[in-house]
Amino acid sequence: MRQQLIDKFLEIFGEGDDANVYFAPGRINLIGEHTDYNGGHVFPCAITIGTYAAARRRKDQELHLYSLNYPENGMIQAPLSDLSYRQKDGWGNYPKGVVQTFISKNCRVSCGLDILYYGDIPKGLGIGSSASIEVVTGLILKELMGLSDISLVDIALFSQLAEHEYIGMSCGIMDPFTIAMGKKDHAIFLDTSDLSYVYAPLLLSHEKIIITNSQKKRSAVDTRYHERRAQCAEALKELQTVIAIRDLGELTAEVFEKVQEMIASPVRVCRARHAVTENQRTIQAVEALKHGDLFEFGQLMNASHLSLKEDYEVSCEELDILVEEAWNMDGVLGSRMMGAGFGGCTVSIVENSAVNSFIQKVGENYQSRTGLQAEFYVVETGNGATVL
Ligand code: GLA
Question: Atom 8 of ligand 1 has which residue's CA nearest to it?
């Protein structure tokens, strides 16, 4: 991949200084969904597919960006002095947003850059492709601008800030953090209230992680995501009138039961209950994994799905059908919708011996119930952002 990308780079940007190649993965999340903006825990891992980028410094003050995935956008060019968001730049707004954020954080971006991107993350899956582009761009800036005091965690935080302030998507820290900090054969048990984390070994010798693309187009995700976020913030405010907490993630299910009557709307009670119980499930799941209890882990994944469906209402018919079909199969330890929701994919843990029948049967039944053809990816855990 490295040499191929360098060859393409020289073909597109012309001969000149050598380019370096960088990689940032995509991410999956085993459990802990919609907890990362509620001060709760998440349990994601980086995977082996992601975004590659070849880059070199320019002699002027311009950004020149090209993606092999979006040749129709052509070469995106912008001066460092005006990196404002432009609709027509499409995907290119993600890297532009990151460069802009670095500049706004007083990082010295001393010259322009040529960057060629290539991603092997399937479109529409919801496994962090935009965060992957952002983090790889952050790594390029760190390396090519000599920003040695910028850490990978800083890159994750700047990527999140770019999403919030430049793209307009108020996402949590899970995606960029995992993509920057992932570690092969490990999941990250991350406490989003203070960014403390532990790498938990994930040596699945008898099982595989399968991501299933529902092929249901995700629509109005941003609007509905922001709505959930606002509902949780409102519920938190109502609870803070009787209990001194900073985040919903600080509550146990038992304490929540006692104070929930302070939340005036039944919908907000449901949203907050998901945030609280999902956080507790995530803590329990990591404990179960520590003891090698994958059965319990899978049960908690299943419970997570029900809570996302019923309390948080971010699932959809297609995701529910995929999960239901998975639950009906032998050899499936757990299955649930993954990511923001409203379409996208599910994550399942399946015994090795059942993988083929899972793909065949779930695929067939899903197609006959929805008319859609699901796609299956057996994923491997991988490392976080790196120079290749
Ligand atoms: C999206 C966001 C994440 C997280 C998930 C839901 O992927 O980018 O920050 O909130 O949804 O868990």
Answer: 171
